[in-house]
Specification:
single chain; mainly alpha; 0% strand
Length: 68
């Protein structure tokens, strides 16, 4: 099989068939679940969760074992 002349759709189709044949349908889904890129903006979300603590607040958190 020469992938240089295959379209993206053809490559995707062949890949799905290969995964299904080797892993089965459930295994294929599990494979994709492990390789998800995720969603959202971690940096922005983290800032909303933690705010903008000062260096002293971070150091105090480490000393107290809270880790935030």
């Amino acid at each position: 099989m020469n992938t240089e002349i295959m379209t993206i759709s053809e490559i995707r189709k062949e890949g799905l068939q290969a995964l299904t044949q080797k892993l089965g349908a459930v295994g294929m889904v599990g494979f994709f679940q492990q390789n998800e890129s995720g969603w959202g903006n971690y940096t922005k979300d983290r800032s909303q969760w933690l705010g903008t603590p000062s260096f002293v607040e971070i150091a105090d958190g480490i000393r107290s074992g809270k880790g935030n």
